[in-house]
Model the fold of this input.
Amino acid sequence: MLRARRYKAKFGDMEVVRTIEELQTSGGALRRRFGSLALVPTMGALHDGHRALVKAAVDSGAGIVASIFVNPLQFNANEDLSRYPRDEAGDLAALRACGCHLVWLPDVATMYPLEGATTITVAGPAEEWEGKARPGHFRGVATVCAKLFGQVRPDRAYFGEKDWQQLQVVRRMVADLHLPLEIVAVPTVREPDGLAMSSRNRFLNAEERAIAPGLHVILSATATALRSGSASDAALAAADRDLNQAGFQVDYLALVDAATMSALPQMAPGARLIVAARLGTVRLIDNIAV
Ligand code: PAF
Done:
């Protein structure tokens, strides 16, 4: 109880809590005040993409809870967790400015107590693409999201379309486990030149930053070609060549079913183009409806 009192803080109208007890007290009060709760899960380093999630949640009229937790379980051994950008003061100011009511800021020991024995593995939409490129990543995402949903008990949770596969994995988990909340998707927010907003963009050097918008340009041109009847093999091969020529190292580029994430041999209703490509040490992902 002493610990709870020490950590709780107020930033104007916004409250910041760091223990489960505080979250349940303050979350309960928020639910009584607004009638429902909306959760925006984040790993901090907030940008306009996150602001759009909070704004969409605010528009729903619910009490808004944003979580900031850099989840070690979704980083694998080859990924540098310590390199993940952190800016707690900047994030709290941004959340307050967007109209967030409550910030959930647990530490690793609170989220993953030593006696914990449960993780969540989603098959289906988690298996390919990011699932293959980043083994264990979606087990970490699904586990932390299930924990956040259990801790906050939101009526709705907001996810960006930028991480399209993550969105499908979370949706699948919520459906399979009959979790009592709605997952709301928010369109990708882009820089004026088309680059999808991402916490990783800050790691691009000037030369890479100049090349980076090409990812969206090439993806959009490929979607247009597919819509106007180009064969998917030829369109994907041309896009792969264009990306390489622009300076990207392509991890994958695929036409997939938007919900199951299975590769499609040809255009079909609900198709989505997905891509992951590297510029130097920075790995960018993007996607577009076809
Ligand atoms: O998209 C993210 O920022 C993270 O994967 C999420 C959903 C907050 C889980 O850690």
